[in-house]
Design brief:
The protein is built from twelve helices and six strands. The chain is an alpha/beta fold and 404 residues long. It folds into two domains: 90 residues, no CATH class; 279 residues, Alpha-Beta Complex (Protein-Tyrosine Phosphatase, Chain A), CATH 3.90.190. Strand 4 and strand 5 form a beta hairpin. Helix 5 packs antiparallel against helix 11 and helix 9 packs across helix 10. It starts with a helix and ends with a helix. GO terms for molecular function: protein tyrosine phosphatase activity. This is Protein-tyrosine-phosphatase. It holds the Pfam family Y_phosphatase.
């Protein structure tokens, strides 16, 4: 490096090469030591973010170099900062180092810390400003909605779903690209230690009151109906669409053991589209809340459609946002959908459902106005799903077509 060359030249000119070289060498080693220490600290701090993001810490990035093998002479001091600036300019992602409580990671020494800035994961709007916000987003053929929804498309992607990919479970998935993430999937009680008997295509989902307030599930298949009833018994309250039914289940072994299941069946919601008017889904959400027992021991509510992501995600978001409105809290549609997508892929499956959430919440805020104020959005297919031929047989009763 230049510092070493300057030391040698200075030694020759001044006749004191040994002394100056010794001082320069000491300075160089000190800087090398500081640089290596900085690299080690960065690697140690980086360890925790992969765990926080749910990534596999046992497979560090291919370009990562162990701190013990790094030579300070092979790196320019400003390289890291230039690279971070370049990434920020290209992606808008802000990289920060953060130390979590010690002991949170201990499997591998090297990880990468990446945080999206708050503006990327949360966009709260005050209730009094929400009408103007929706109006601005709707301009230019709802172009700004399209821009915002585009930012959500890859949220959560890449998380492990090994249980869903296991050969014994593949035919239990209605769609090949709607698979539950391992970290939030619902695990059933194993039956006779049978391989795969703990699997169902469903994930716990955050709500207003709890990180596990809902279970988003695909509609039951002929091969998964027993498992679906098992998770229903686990959760006590089950809903989808709009006739209200009450089911009472009595154990044959213990007649005193009775469970009541309330089933809300909303029949006017087309596959991939949205209802013609938000009034029905708002009434459903309010009725659902009124019927829900008020108890801290409430188990999660099952919400399902065919895939358990589009209509299910839309309802969960609306239910949660209605409770924010009741408490006069800011409305954050983007942040809530972002959070749901970290738990299950494709939640709120297409752009029209995302727009419908905004209009439904605006209608709820402005209720008292006439239904004539509502302008429905066009039903378009923006969320692609891939049917799984592995489960199809003559016993399937057309769950996709019925919206069940």
């Amino acid at each position: 490096m230049a510092m070493e060359g300057e030391g040698r030249k200075g030694g020759r000119d001044e006749g004191g090469r040994g002394c100056i070289n010794a001082a320069v060498c000491s300075t160089t080693k000190e800087k090398e030591s500081q640089w290596v220490a900085l690299k080690m600290m960065m690697a140690e701090r980086a360890a925790d973010c992969l765990a926080k993001l749910g990534l596999d810490s046992q497979q560090p990035p291919a370009q990562t170099v162990a701190a013990t093998s790094v030579s300070a002479n092979s790196l320019e001091p400003n390289f890291h900062h230039r690279r971070c600036r370049s990434l920020r300019e290209r992606t808008g992602v802000d990289h920060r180092l953060e130390r979590l409580p010690s002991g949170s990671m201990h499997r591998t020494p090297l990880h990468t810390v990446m945080h999206t800035s708050n503006s990327n994961i949360s966009r709260p709007v005050r209730i009094e400003d929400f009408a103007e916000h929706v109006a601005q987003m709707s301009r230019d053929s709802e172009f700004h909605f399209s821009e915002e929804y585009e930012l959500l498309k890859n949220v959560g992607c890449g998380q492990s779903n090994s249980a869903a990919e296991a050969p014994v479970n593949r035919t239990k998935n209605r769609f090949t690209n709607i698979l539950p993430y391992d970290h939030s999937r619902v695990k059933l009680v194993e039956v006779d230690e049978e391989d795969g008997s703990d699997y169902i295509n469903a994930n716990f989902m955050p709500g207003f009151s709890s990180r596990r307030e809902f279970i988003a599930a695909q509609g039951p298949l002929p091969s998964t109906r027993d498992a679906f009833w098992q998770v229903t018994l686990l959760c006590e309250t089950h809903y989808d669409e709009f006739t209200v039914r009450e089911l009472r289940l009595t154990s044959l072994k213990d007649p005193q053991a009775v469970r009541t299941i309330r089933h809300f069946h909303y029949q006017a919601w087309p596959d991939f589209g949205v209802p013609e008017h938000p009034d029905g889904i708002l009434r459903l959400a309010r009725l659902f809340r009124a019927k829900l027992p008020h108890s801290p021991q409430n188990k999660p509510t099952i919400v399902h459609c065919s895939a358990g992501v589009g209509r299910s995600g839309t309802f969960i978001a609306i239910d949660r946002l209605l409770q924010y409105i009741q408490l006069s809290r800011p409305v954050d549609v983007f942040g809530i959908v972002n959070e749901m997508r970290m738990e299950r892929c494709h939640m709120v499956q297409n752009e029209q459902q995302y727009i419908f959430i905004h209009h439904a919440i605006l209608y709820a805020i402005q209720q008292g106005g006439s239904s004539a104020d509502w302008q429905p959005t066009t039903n378009t297919l923006n969320g692609e799903i891939h049917h799984n031929p592995g489960f199809q047989n003559d016993e399937d009763e057309g769950i996709v077509e019925s919206g069940f």
